[in-house]
């Protein structure tokens, strides 16, 4: 694809394909400064998201993107590399972004706004010089290793780039992992908030960019049907699962000191838990929603290590393909005791959820890929079908299907046709793809757009992050420096046996990984 070489003029029209969704206000003009321009995140997710946003017509003609990295490169080389990358997605159905073709006008619109700056963000003079390229509104996106989050924010502060003047905003987007435990998350917040106001900080959790995760709020609070039942009077327990078939692949160096608990629980799974269990906020404003979440997180009893199970995958077969053991993966110690699977039981000490356990599980190299929330109801108060063919009915369940199935499933009993009163379990399903036209989306579109328009509802506030770390801290401490209870499971299994026992002890069982 040939690309324009001229810088964009403010009159550059939106791409021919652009069509802003009805009611969505266009984002204001802004410079998006990406630290980590040559990184994986920029290539795999941010560029496809910007391409999709350009197609939606929501970006202002004055939108610009400055990529910053230490790598010696020019704007032309950066653009060419990204263009090649975008093209490669068209023949990789497994990429996060996959489209049959790349619209040249739409990608060209993004491309002509790209500028590469080779700079060391540890060098004050270079960061100051960067500031001269940024006239008004700016978002600084830290797509860099987490150890640089605080130093980059401090450097931006010293260079005067995050001072909001003349009605212009200056915002900073921070990726995960946000800290490695409660203490480091508190310290990171302290250093960031010494430079920025909380309203300038956008801590990303990419799960919140998923339509299906946002739908949890729409479903709970946009209908009368669910909320009256959404409490301990009717709900027996809740299961939150993020099961992955992929293993650690080439990410051993990151994963070894991290593990499944830190990688997934205080962020992604807690965000799902927040959406499912928070009290109805008074409005959909960022602080009201995040305060509701905070009240819930504060009600979570610190998790007892006896309510936590860890496992690590050994060699096995996933989806018919052989998988090497975690310990054989590049960057992983041969005697590693990093967990690749974790299951936990949460207790929530508030009026609504007292007595309702929330079971969370996540793992890599499992037999099935699914992210879902299963809300299991209690049995009806009276078994009026006692003397019929139907003695025992499975409980009602509402399953919020996050991925790969997207939608909602209700499991209930219905009369089997025929002369006898015999009930069968049936599923009522809503699937996004059956009802709505779907366009390729990597989840970062909403998050970038929200940051541009100043809506922090889908971003984590400092106190939300700390409360989640506080809940898991006893488990992290109990597991540090030992392998007690770490159970090996073969790749392709549903997890370690201990995870099944965690529920069996309570007379319950996990919802099967191949259930819906
Ligand atoms: C990332 C984790 O944050 O989320 C990965 O670091 C994990 O280990 C990924 O695979 C899961 O996200 P998704 O969107 O693929 O379910």
Automatic annotation (TrEMBL):
Transmembrane segments: none
Positions with a binding annotation for substrate: 206, 210, 244, 263, 364
Annotated keywords: Carbohydrate metabolism, Glucose metabolism, NADP, Oxidoreductase
Family, per entry: Belongs to the glucose-6-phosphate dehydrogenase family.
Gene transcribed to yield this protein: zwf_3
A cellular-component GO term for this protein: cytosol
Function, as annotated: Catalyzes the oxidation of glucose 6-phosphate to 6-phosphogluconolactone.
This protein's pathway: Carbohydrate degradation; pentose phosphate pathway; D-ribulose 5-phosphate from D-glucose 6-phosphate (oxidative stage): step 1/3
Alphabetical list of PANTHER family matching this protein: GLUCOSE-6-PHOSPHATE 1-DEHYDROGENASE (PTHR23429:SF0), GLUCOSE-6-PHOSPHATE 1-DEHYDROGENASE G6PD (PTHR23429)
Entry protein name: Glucose-6-phosphate 1-dehydrogenase
Organism, as annotated: Novacetimonas maltaceti
Enzyme Commission identifier(s): 1.1.1.49
Residue ranges occupied by any Glucose-6-phosphate dehydrogenase C-terminal domain in the UniProt entry: 217-510
Residue segments, region Disordered: 1-24
Keyword Translocase: no
Record-linked HAMAP family: G6PD (MF_00966)
Ranges of Low complexity composition bias in the record: 8-24
Gene Ontology annotations of biological process type: glucose metabolic process; pentose-phosphate shunt, oxidative branch
Active site: 268 (proton acceptor)
NCBIfam families to which the protein is assigned, alphabetical: PRK12853.1-3, zwf
InterPro entries according to UniProt: G6P_DH, G6P_DH_AS, G6P_DH_C, G6P_DH_NAD-bd, NAD(P)-bd_dom_sf
Catalysed conversion reaction: D-glucose 6-phosphate + NADP(+) = 6-phospho-D-glucono-1,5-lactone + NADPH + H(+)
Ligand binding (NADP(+)): 70, 120-121, 176
Pfam families, per the entry: G6PD_C (PF02781), G6PD_N (PF00479)
Gene3D superfamilies, A to Z: Dihydrodipicolinate Reductase, domain 2, NAD(P)-binding Rossmann-like Domain
Record domain Glucose-6-phosphate dehydrogenase NAD-binding: where: 33-215
GO-annotated molecular function: glucose-6-phosphate dehydrogenase activity; NADP binding
């Amino acid at each position: 694809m040939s690309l324009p070489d001229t810088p964009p003029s403010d009159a550059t029209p939106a791409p021919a394909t652009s069509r802003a969704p009805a009611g969505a206000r266009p984002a204001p003009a802004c410079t998006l400064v990406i630290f980590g321009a040559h990184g994986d995140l920029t290539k795999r997710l941010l560029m496809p998201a910007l391409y999709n946003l350009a197609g939606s017509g929501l970006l202002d003609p004055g939108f610009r993107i400055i990529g910053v990295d230490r790598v010696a490169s020019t704007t032309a080389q950066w653009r060419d590399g990204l263009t090649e990358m975008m093209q490669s997605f068209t023949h990789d159905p497994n990429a996060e972004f996959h489209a049959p073709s790349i619209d040249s006008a739409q990608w060209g619109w993004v491309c002509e706004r790209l500028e590469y700056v080779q700079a060391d963000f540890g060098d004050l003079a270079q960061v100051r010089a960067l500031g001269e390229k940024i006239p008004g509104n700016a978002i600084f996106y830290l797509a860099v290793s987490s150890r640089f989050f605080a130093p980059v924010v401090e450097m931006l502060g010293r260079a005067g780039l995050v001072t909001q003047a003349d009605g212009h905003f200056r915002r900073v987007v921070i990726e995960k992992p946000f800290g490695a435990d409660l203490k480091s998350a508190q310290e990171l917040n302290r250093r960031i908030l010494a430079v920025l106001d909380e309203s300038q900080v956008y801590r990303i959790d990419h799960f919140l960019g998923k339509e299906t995760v946002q739908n949890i709020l729409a479903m709970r609070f946009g209908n009368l049907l669910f909320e009256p039942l959404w409490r301990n009077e009717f709900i027996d327990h809740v299961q939150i699962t993020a099961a992955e078939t992929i293993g650690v692949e080439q990410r051993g160096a990151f994963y070894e000191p991290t593990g499944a608990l830190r990688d997934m629980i205080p962020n992604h799974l807690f965000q799902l838990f927040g959406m499912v269990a928070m009290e109805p906020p008074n409005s959909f404003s960022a602080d009201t929603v995040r305060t509701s979440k905070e009240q819930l997180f504060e009600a979570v009893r610190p998790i007892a290590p006896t309510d936590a199970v860890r496992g690590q995958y050994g060699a096995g077969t996933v989806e018919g393909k052989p998988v090497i053991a975690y310990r054989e993966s590049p960057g992983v110690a041969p005697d590693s005791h990093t967990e690749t699977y974790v299951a936990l039981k949460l207790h929530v000490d508030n009026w609504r959820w007292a007595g309702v356990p929330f079971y969370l599980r996540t793992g890599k190299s499992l037999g099935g890929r699914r992210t879902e929330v299963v809300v299991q109801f209690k049995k009806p108060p009276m078994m009026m079908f006692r003397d019929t063919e139907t003695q025992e009915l499975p409980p009602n369940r509402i399953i919020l299907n996050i991925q790969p199935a997207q939608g909602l499933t209700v499991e209930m009993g219905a009369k089997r046709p025929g002369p006898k009163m015999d009930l069968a379990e049936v599923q009522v399903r809503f699937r996004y793809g059956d009802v709505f036209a779907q366009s390729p989306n990597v989840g970062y579109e909403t998050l970038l757009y929200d940051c541009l328009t100043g809506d922090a509802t889908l971003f984590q506030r400092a106190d939300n992050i700390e409360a989640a770390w506080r809940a898991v801290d006893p488990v992290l401490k109990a597991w540090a420096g030992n392998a007690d209870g770490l159970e090996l499971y073969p790749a392709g299994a549903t997890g370690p046996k201990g995870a099944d026992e965690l529920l069996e002890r309570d007379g319950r069982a996990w919802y099967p990984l191949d259930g819906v």
